[in-house]
What we know:
The complex is a heterodimer of chains A (171) and B (111). With 171 residues, chain A is α/β, with parallel strands linked by helices.
Amino acid sequence: MIRVEYMPFDLTSTYKPSPEEALELGFGRIFSNDEIRVTPDISDVPTCIVANSDQGLLDRAIRRPNVAGIVINDSELLRMTLEKLKENEKALVLPLHQITCAETRQRLRNIYRMRSLLGSAFRYGADVAVATLAENKTCLLSSQQMVEVCMFLGANSKQADSMVSRLGEML
Amino acid sequence: MILKRKYRYVAVRSSSPIDASAQENRITAEILRVIGELSYSEANPKIVSQTSKTFFIIRVNRGHEKRLVLALAFIKRVGEMPIGLFSIKTSGTIRSLKYLPDNPGDPAPKA
């Protein structure tokens, strides 16, 4: 089986890793908040990801050209939102720090929620990306670990590779 | 005929310096907490080598290396110390991992 080459990427929240760290962890690049801003509201920055639980706001954000993707905080994902994501070629971003850096009970709840988000996104054909959104060095993951976490959440190996490299396609 | 058990070796980089041999019980206790007793007994992880303060190698039974990589992603504390454990590479031989560079950006040391 021929494996198509892919380049994994990551995005952090407040931590800024060096290019050498990114290389050693197996990433083509780790973007910081300066390059792709994660905001709770629609903003005018060149590229941003909107993280909110308000479906109406997320639906409006999806239509904006500077919004690369959305993060859904603590709420269900509506079918309409998924269809809009697919139409506008935007990505649903899964923040992995919510399952790797959380306390046990919260972690288990987040794993369940992300599994169902991922399953719904795949069912409706929406793009999915993953990022650690790490606030410090301990919250980072290597690219190998990121692929394993994606497969743990229900993706197959091809889908996991695509999720890990999707961030790079956003820029 | 004595059957030789087959292993896989996982190279691990830590986010801060750690004495992996001294902390082995705590590291393996964290792995046990994440994957459970049944998976732990099948995987049988063991720290076999440490080449620098932030780089060590864990041996695991073949077929369970992916579970170990996943478990390391969920471990963010060893004892009272917050730490990140990043799996860099997996191999069937320890030799191919021992010659990874000690520090990011350094060329690999000569064999």
